[in-house]
Specification:
- It contains 4 helices and 6 strands; from the N terminus they run αββββαββαα.
- It has a 4-stranded antiparallel β-sheet with strand order 3-4-6-5, covered by helices on one side. Strands 1-2 form a two-stranded antiparallel sheet.
- Strand 1 and strand 2 form a beta hairpin.
- Helix 1 runs antiparallel to helix 3 and helix 3 packs antiparallel against helix 4.
- It starts with a helix and ends with a helix.
């Protein structure tokens, strides 16, 4: 019985890890990456549209992002959206494409990014803990209803903790990799 309860919550835990990966993907590492532009929406014919739906985004060089809009009339809107974002990027519009040069990060900025990364990591782990509490509450409820024995309840608690440890390990591995990207010159 506890196995089904844990399995149902695994998809929520997967979503928490996925959200974490998306959140930290937007942290600038000093290297060009299309994922840093994922949060940018462009005013496209009166509607807020994700940048990746109005343009092709490529990384031809390690510190350069090139944005080729499918409609050249949207160049100004794309440029404005990037300038107004909190990414501190300076887009160059040549009338055909937008080129973004990613400056090297200062040591101070790298340390700030690691702090932000650690906060996002902690938020992801808190999310996993909340899922653990939900599962544990459900296991206890099922046991009180007489649908599960006390031994199964405690076995379920151990199995639940193993699953939580597995997800926390996954989050930590992702954090270590991202921190390496941020701190590497």
């Amino acid at each position: 019985m506890y196995k089904e309860i844990i399995e149902k919550k695994k998809s929520d835990m997967d979503k928490s890890v996925e959200r974490y990966v998306n959140d930290i993907g937007q942290l600038r590492t000093g290297r060009a990456s299309v994922s840093i532009l994922d949060s940018i929406s462009v005013d496209y014919y009166g509607a807020r549209t994700p940048l990746k739906q109005v343009a092709s985004i490529t990384v031809p060089e390690p510190r350069t992002i090139v944005i080729s809009p499918w409609d050249k009339g949207s160049l100004a809107g794309i440029e404005k959206a990037i300038r107004e974002s909190q990414l501190n990027l300076n887009p160059n519009n040549d009338g055909q494409i937008i080129r973004i040069n990613i400056p090297a990060l200062t040591e101070e900025r790298r340390k700030d990014l690691v702090k932000i990364l650690n906060q996002k990591t902690e938020d992801a782990k808190i999310s996993i803990r909340k899922h653990r509490e939900d599962v544990w509450d459900e296991i206890q409820k099922v046991e009180k209803e007489g649908l599960m024995g006390e031994d199964d309840k405690f076995i379920g608690k151990e199995k639940l903790q193993e699953v939580v440890d597995e997800y926390n390990k996954k989050i930590e591995e992702i954090r270590i990799k991202k921190e390496g990207e941020i701190l590497t010159i």
